[in-house]
What we know:
Strand content: 15-25%
Helix content: 25-40%
Number of helices: 16
Number of strands: 23
Largest sheet: 7 strands, mixed
Strand order of the largest sheet: 1-2-6-5-3-4-7
Structural class: alpha/beta
Amino acid sequence: MTNRAGTQALPSDLIDIDALVKAYYDLTPDMSVPEQRVVFGTSGHRGSSLNAAFNEQHILATTQAIVEYRALQGITGPLFIGADTHGLSRPAQETALEVLAANGVRTLKDSRDGFTPTPAVSHAILAYNNGGHADEADGIVVTPSHNPPQDGGFKYNPPHGGPADGSATNWIAARANELIEEGLVNVKRTNPEGLIEEYDFLEHYVADLENIIDMKAIAESGVRIGADPLGGASVAYWAAIKDRYNLNLTVVNPEVDPAWSFMTLDWDEKIRMDPSSPNAMASLISKRNDFDVLTGNDADADRHGIVTPDAGLMNPNHFLAVAIEYLFANRPGWRQDARIGKTLVSSSMINFVADGLGRVLWEVPVGFKWFVPGLVDGSVGFGGEESAGASFLRKDGTVWTTDKDGIILALLASEIIAVTGKTPSVLYKELTVRFGDPAYARVDAAAGREAKARLGKLSGDDITATELAGDPIIAKLSHAPGNGEAIGGVKVETEFAWFAARPSGTEDVYKIYAESFKGPEHLKLVQAEAKKIVDAALQA
Length: 540
């Protein structure tokens, strides 16, 4: 924690947007530098134009690679494209449109020339593909999500509407780098004017919300809602939601500024639009007594933050647990065998909730892509991540989105209050009375590129320890129990605690997630021993 975390950003903290955009067009990536190549993480290619990690050449090549990939897959329908409020998003979208138009791809952009949340793009793809068309649609979202203002992001969503899997992103990244190394001679581009169609993302998404959220209950209850888009793509959506459903809702900050001058600084004094961070959400937390519930979204609205008068900002794990218990008790249209999906670094409180509901728990590796098949066929009612990303089914048990949707999670908090008369934080306290009160945290440990690579390939058998913080180890996992996929690290469990270690995709650290049902002091022991156990395995 630094001294200025949670305080208002100063002029010296802000980036020069003009310089950022100029660098996007002017700087050329050095393909001999790994950080300047196209690399798809769990949410697309990300980086800053200022260090040649996200520039026009990257987007020209990546878009051409997506065109070629969809041709190989036989995808001949429209491509929906949306962009968030980051300074690099609009330039990157314009670049992509030039390539898509030149390649003859039927492309649909926002008819309001506005910003488009990630879930609205996923919703559009699925609506088209479930509409009886002979062809299939896919999409591109231009966003680095909650990353700082200097970053850009570019991700591909195939016809299932969710994040592309590794086979797709690896092919796209490899082809994009090949195109750059060839001097972009095989990239087609043209003036897209007159060649791009329009789609009203906002109207289609907002009008459909009544089929997933009990909007009538929220309106009739008069729940006082404060919604903060955090300067992101959901800003116009919240105003439209208020008007269409006659909600007692205030958009507490309708400002859009690509430098995010109104933000409070995150833990490391960086501007980061993370609605799960108490520092980034400090200004919203200060208004906690003015509303029955306050909600925040990140720049592309795929994450959510929930603030209540009695608890302030809820830990994302706490809200996920409450949301799951509420939904599975209040959605009779869902399949009786619908599973509860969670990433294996999410709280074990969800395990207890699943047991209490008599539902099957489905634990998968980190990455929302793993929930996609279950959400599509209705066999997974809810899929959630500890990083405040989740989605769930419509009231009738059919798919809503296959990408994270922070808007519906924020609205769900209001529905919970309207129906139960209790805040989600009060309901979480009731869960702790039944199941215990776990302490949960994530910390980072230093690790170089080689160490991170070794960690990503560790097996549970590489862990030689037999105890963790005084308790016998009962499981050492390198594959998720739900789908058997590699977790890219390890998870170690005891009866009362667990930790998981995974390499960071962007920094020279590895992440230690840990939880203890014995309290905060025991959690500290778990974290300390986790580092020793992992370091010993890496050195073996």
